[in-house]
Amino acid sequence: MSRTTKRAPSLDWTDRDCPVARTLDLVGDRWSLLVIRDAMDGARSFTEFQRRTGIARNILTDRLRKLTAHGLLAQRTAPSGRRQEYVLTNAGRDLFPVILTLRQWGERHAFAPGETHSILVDQHGTPVPEMMPTSADGTPLDADTTHVQKTR
């Protein structure tokens, strides 16, 4: 676990030895990833997160509390000085490739051919290229060319 990620004392891990399971324990529900997505897109206030996601107030309160407790979001005083806002931490920003991969999977598999959807573009307006994991020598990797190796 990174030094920036805080673990709540009552968290029971689904599978304490698996990084995927631990990550899903932290952000694996629909609302947590949508809050992270919206924070990446500039949402800062409770009201903005609620408006963008349509999430119920009690669920949003719970997710913001959980994401903050685990070090993915931080609270700070808004520039106006009148309210608190939420900002991504380094650990939260590290989820960018996860959000990007989910988006790209969705573009390929969650829409009918020709169905309109949003696209992610860089600062110049150019669509972000598809992510493809590669080995150290540049060979594309997939489920058939990798395996899990226990570290103990």
TrEMBL record:
<keyword id="KW-0238">DNA-binding</keyword>
<feature type="region of interest" description="Disordered">
    <location>
        <begin position="132"/>
        <end position="152"/>
    </location>
</feature>
<dbReference type="InterPro" id="IPR002577">
    <property type="entry name" value="HTH_HxlR"/>
</dbReference>
<protein>
    <submittedName>
        <fullName>Transcriptional regulator</fullName>
    </submittedName>
</protein>
<dbReference type="InterPro" id="IPR036390">
    <property type="entry name" value="WH_DNA-bd_sf"/>
</dbReference>
<dbReference type="GO" id="GO:0003677">
    <property type="term" value="F:DNA binding"/>
</dbReference>
<dbReference type="InterPro" id="IPR036388">
    <property type="entry name" value="WH-like_DNA-bd_sf"/>
</dbReference>
<dbReference type="InterPro" id="IPR011991">
    <property type="entry name" value="ArsR-like_HTH"/>
</dbReference>
<keyword id="KW-0804">Transcription</keyword>
<feature type="domain" description="HTH hxlR-type">
    <location>
        <begin position="18"/>
        <end position="114"/>
    </location>
</feature>
<dbReference type="Pfam" id="PF01638">
    <property type="entry name" value="HxlR"/>
</dbReference>
<keyword id="KW-0805">Transcription regulation</keyword>
